[in-house]
Amino acid sequence: MKVIRLRAGRERSLQRRHPWVFESAIAKGGADPGETVRVESAEGEFLAWAAFSPASQIRVRAWSFDAAERIDAAFFERRIARALAMRERLQVPSDAVRLVHGESDGLPGLIVDRYGDTLVAQFGTAGVERWKTVIVEALLRQTGLKRFYERSDASVRALEGLPEQTGWLAGEGATELTIREHDWRLSLDIATGHKTGYYLDQRDNRRRFAEVVRQHGCKRVLNCFSYTGGFSVAALAGGAERVISVDSSGPALARANAHVALNGFEAARHEALDADVNKTLRALIAAGEQFDAIVLDPPKLAPTSAHAERAARAYKDINRLGLKLLAPGGLLFTFSCSGGVGPELFHKIVAGAGMDAQVDAYILERVAAAPDHPQTLYFPEGDYLKGLLLLKQG
């Protein structure tokens, strides 16, 4: 077994059960990509069994903090079984569920989503790449499913020195699927859709949006960065009379229109606008438009804290414009999925947007990812999606 020895004083994060060790913390030792290593303190004390990533700044990712545990096929069987059992307890109101959520499930770099009868996975690190065959076999066996598609095309693969890989790992057939979410039906393509095909992390927030649209009688709704219109369907289900979906992807907007029809809503109640969100918000303000509810769900703008300052300016601008467009008493559902922007900073950014817009708002709720995308006590980086539901004072 190869040993990674840390620099003096750099063992504290592993002692707190945080799974990452950066290259700068390592005094000596190395291994092949994904190889299991024994991580020790400067004094030789056992800290963790981990996967080694020679190309990554995150050089070591811990599998286990138990010196007696072996990292073998049985280990992955146990971790996957534990993750599946937790999702079973959650009773997710959908046939599309996140089954494995990386570090939060003790499997760093592994994302597995279930869409009906199909599994879709991202193998994002050298460790899970090395154990891919074992992981795939365990998931197929424990779920009883036959179709397994790989979407290892996220940018993090390059940081690990790994090429992009996509395609069927088991089974075959159409990649176009239809799922059930709450009382709605939504379609996706696991080969081309964002992430593994869809944004499952917003599932409960979409349901909550439908509820507050109905509760507050919102008739005019603007969904920005709408992608395929999940929040637009939610708004229509909540009784909105006019919903505008704004996105810069024509194919995504075509699917949004299809979702409106798939769920039995009148096409006349929905408008899909292929345009830049910032320019659209400014044009709507100039035209004197107002909305009863607005969703701002932009893509990731700050993957790390190093990008936070630039991202803060972008988040502030769209929230300022959104607050100005809201009618008095209107609702703003605003999100950040940037890991480099924490909840406190996001609150500060939105507060600054309110100052610039010269409006105040009540914070009705703070929201996060759906519970099948868990955050654990020891891995705060798992808290990537944060949102505020605001009521504009009038």
Give a description of the structure.
The protein is an alpha/beta fold. 30% of the residues lie in helices and 30% in strands. The strands form 4 sheets. Strands 16-15-14-17-18-20-19 form a 7-stranded mixed beta sheet, sandwiched between helices. Strand 12 (176-181) and strand 13 form a beta hairpin. The longest helix has 18 residues, at 73-90. The radius of gyration is 22 Å and the shape is globular.
Q: Count of helical segments?
A: 11
Radius of gyration: 22 Å
Unreliable sequence segments = none
Q: Which structural category do the helix and sheet elements fall into? A: alpha/beta
Task: Count the E strands.
Answer: 20
Task: State the separation between the terminal residues, measured CA to CA.
Answer: 66 Å
Order of strands side by side in the largest beta sheet? 16-15-14-17-18-20-19
The percentage helix is 25-40%
The main sheet comes to: 7 strands, mixed
Shape: globular
% residues in beta strands: 25-35%
Instruction: Let me know the average pLDDT.
Output: 96
What's the quick description here?
This protein has 394 residues and is of the alpha/beta class. The protein contains eleven helices and 20 strands. Helix content is 30%, strand content 30%.
Features:
alpha/beta, 30% helix, 394 residues, 11 helices, seven-stranded mixed beta sheet
Sequence-ordered SSE layout with sheet pairings:
Layout: E1 2-6, H1 12-15, E2 20-22, E3 26-28, E4 36-40, E5 46-52, E6 58-64, H2 73-90, E7 96-101, E8 110-115, E9 118-123, H3 126-130, H4 132-143, E10 147-152, H5 156-159, E11 165-170, E12 176-181, E13 184-189, H6 203-215, E14 220-224, H7 230-237, E15 242-247, H8 250-262, E16 270-274, H9 277-286, E17 291-296, H10 308-325, E18 326-336, H11 343-357, E19 361-368, E20 386-392
Parallel strand pairs: 1-4, 9-10, 14-15, 14-17, 15-16, 17-18
Antiparallel strand pairs: 1-3, 2-6, 4-5, 5-6, 7-8, 8-9, 10-11, 12-13, 18-20, 19-20
Helix pairs in contact: 2-4, 6-7, 9-10, 10-11
